[in-house]
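If you are new to this repository, start here. Below is one unmodified record pulled from the training split, so you can see the exact layout before writing a loader.
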Amino acid sequence: MVGRRTSRSPGGVGRFHDLAELDAELIECRACPRLVAWRERVAIEKRAAFADQEYWQRPVPGFGPDDAALLIIGLAPAAHGANRTGRMFTGDRSGDFLFAALHAVGLASQSESISADDGLRLYGTRMTAPVRCPPPQNKPTVAERDRCASWLHAELELLAPTVRSVVTLGSFGWAATLRTFGALGWEVPRPRPKFAHGATTTLTRDDAAIEVFGCYHVSQHNTFTGRLTPQMAQEVLAAAGRHAGLRVAGPE
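And here is the target side for that same chain:
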């Protein structure tokens, strides 16, 4: 997984030796003025429940081992979740739902993700996002998406040797996954597969293959309305975990 480091691209992202080096540079990024202003604003205009807490208010790195076989790709950090705690899907209702499902199938050490120092561990699994700062209304612009894309590109380049399955949460993560792996030289089926809950597609490069699994996003809109149930999420996570060769429990 160690590669020769090259010069930085205009966006400040090039090739990194490892994920620790990538994450250290990522958290200093200020490339998107609107997102920087928003992440810092919500850290001042805190929710009453978090009034005594200091917000992370920086780009959020991926979370999980650097030799993960299963990758979970979402959309962006939540303004009062990961933007507060500094860890993906930690500190909000969406994270509560996701980590409960991961724990149920044996991919997380505990069912709650409260803070970055709560001792939670992921087993063979890493989670990340195409956009690393919280966008207003959870809607990054196309320019912000494209400007942030090089971070995911660099992360997936480092993870590709061990990843065997990817779970994409929502159509944004699905599209970013196919686009990024395609840019890394992986063959994406044509026509490009459309996102759907339960959809799968296979990416290939040389003699390697990665299976991509679609899952509705764990947003409160989806989980509160029942569009995404715990059973549905567990089924996708269990299938992806098994394909990745991980020891999982839960539905077949």
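Two things worth knowing about this chain: Confidence is low (pLDDT under 50) at residues 1-13. The helical segments are 19-26, 33-44, 82-85, 93-104, 142-159, 170-183, 220-225, 230-243.
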